[in-house]
Amino acid sequence: MTQETKETVDNAEVDRLLALVTDALEELKAVDIKVLDVCGLTSITDRMVIASGTSTRHVKSLADNVTRRTKEAGFRALGVEGEQAAEWVLVDLGDVVVHVMMPAIREFYALEKLWSVGSDAGPVSE
Questions:
Q1: 7-54 pLDDT tens trace
Q2: Which among 105, 126, 117, 101 is positioned nearest to 38, based on CA atoms?
Q3: 89 alpha-carbon distance from chain centroid
Q4: DSSP H helical ranges for 28-109
């Protein structure tokens, strides 16, 4: 397999994972879902998904649904953090990192602005 073929396969898997994540969030009515392309900014991940929940219970349910749906599709979460307080739950899926946050926490940390500083890439979707 050539490097170009491998990159195409990898990109297709990232796109499939991203679609699963956004579907899982939309299924449970996540608020203001944003997808950021950060592959040129960090080697940690390719995409970040940021979404809000309306309560801590909703935030936890959204993160649980992402974890469950991606696991059913054969992807493995590398880690899940913040489930106890559920004001900000991070689901690390390797190529995609998901941040599910309460609106006040999201506004305070402003991850969308943080990851777009000095970047022309900006959001993948609004």
A1: 555 788 999 999 999 999 999 999 999 999 988 888 889 899 999 999
A2: 117
A3: 10
A4: 56-72, 103-109
Class of domain 3-125: alpha beta
Higher pLDDT, 7 or 83: 83
86-122: b (≥16 Cβ within 10 Å) or e = bbbbbbebbbbbbbbbbeebbeeeebbeebbeeeeee
Residue ranges covered by each domain of the chain? 3-125
> Rounded CA gap, 25 and 7, in Å?
27
- The pTM for the full model equals 0.85
- Paired with 10 in beta bridges are none
Q: Whole-number mean pLDDT of the chain?
A: 88
Q: How far is CA 56 from the centre of its chain?
A: 18
